[in-house]
Amino acid sequence: MKTLFSRFAPLLLLMLLFSACFEPETPQETAEAFWNAVTKDDARGAVRYSTLEDVRHYDAFGKVWGGLKPTWGRVVIDGDSASVAAEFNAPGRPAEESRHVVTYLVRQEGRWTVDYARTSTALQGGVFTLLLGELGKLGRQLSEQLAASSEDIRLEMDAMAEKMEAYSETLNEQASESIERHGDALRRSIDELAASAREALKDPEANLTAEERRALDDVAGDLEEESERLCDPDVASMAESSKNAEAAQQRLITINKEALEQYKRQWRAWQEQFEAEARRFLEELNRALEPKSDPQNP
Question: Of the residues 42, 67, 81, 198, which has the fewest C-beta atoms closer than 10 A?
Answer without folding.
Answer: 67
